[in-house]
Amino acid sequence: MAQLRNSDTPPTANTCRGTVVVAGSQLFMKGRCRDRAFMRQFPGASILTDLVEEAERRGFLVATLDQFLDRRDWPRPALLVSDMGVGLEECEGDAIPAICWCLESPVIANRFFHRLEKETKPFRHVFLWRGASGRASPRASFHPISWPNEDRPLPEPRGPQSRRLIAMVTANKRPFRLVWPPQSRRPWRLVRWFGSMIINAPATIWIRAVDHWMYHGLAKARRNAIEWFGLNADFDLYGPGWESVRGGLNRKLARAVNRCYRGPLPAGPQAKIEALQRYRFCLCIENTRFPGYATEKIFEPMFAGAIPVYLGAPDIAGQVPPDSFVDVRQFPSWASLGKYLANLPEVEVQRMRAAGADFLASDAFESFRSGTQARLLVDALDQVSHGAA
Length: 389
Description:
Layout: E1 19-23, H1 36-39, H2 46-57, E2 61-64, H3 65-70, E3 78-83, E4 96-101, H4 110-114, H5 116-120, E5 125-128, E6 141-144, E7 164-169, H6 187-210, H7 219-232, E8 235-238, H8 251-260, H9 269-276, E9 279-285, H10 296-303, E10 307-311, E11 326-327, H11 334-343, H12 346-360, H13 370-388
Parallel strand pairs: 1-2, 1-3, 3-4, 4-5, 5-6, 7-8, 7-9, 9-10, 10-11
Helix pairs in contact: 2-13, 7-8
């Protein structure tokens, strides 16, 4: 069966197993989730391209939500694959709520995770971080999701003198969109800050006050790390949004950013990997501490031949070999961590790099491959399809 393109007319005859409806970010609609080159610009997004290809290999037709709603004569059953419940109302009565999935952290997707049981109740299967299992609806089959990485060639080894000490790639953004005090006294920034507070503050304050999942955000730790390394180490910072900090109210952070900030990188993980090939270590701080929540932050440095210096998932040692990264929790201060990194013998650096490369080439990494996660999603669709037949 030929793959459906945006301009194709969906078949009306019973020529396939049904229609998979992909619902999520507007960026990926209009069939754009088929475009691997486009999807590679967004961390983790290639899982949708792999999902499309795997579902069609098994005999399904795939449409994005906008394509599905534009026409009503798609082959049945129609199975909704929803990112955080998107499309549920629009497809009511027309598509079976088959899968709800999410790759965001609780502190970013705070309203979704705060109401997780209600949000997941309509679905047959949910794919979420391991720590969410107790709050997801018991009516749905729970599947722990892992970060979906694309396979990439490892770089050629570089000598000890060809790499700088440490880098960090992160955007300057705050969870909850609730910032106090305002980061700038410039009039237009104050207007934006005030509008954001009026719109978001009531719900945000309530969620932060009552939900313990929101207590473990690492935005402050990230800033503290940038302050110390930016002022005291051979450290480079990349990512969007840090320009505003230079004139901000936190003078220590502003001094650090002025010293270490190297600007944003081009979109897509490949640019990040190429940049990290110039460093021995990469400081990797997740958005939050949450069981199972280990993102591209720890994997992309390994693909670059750099050693992750990691703070995030409390169960990270059960996901990634402990000898392949530096665990920030083992150090009482950023200063002690910085001293350790600066004095780590070259033979130990090479041993840790080799451990990371071995992990990426091993069967243990299989669950972190995008294609593997896509196959698990389509396995769940198979179950729903058989039950609907």
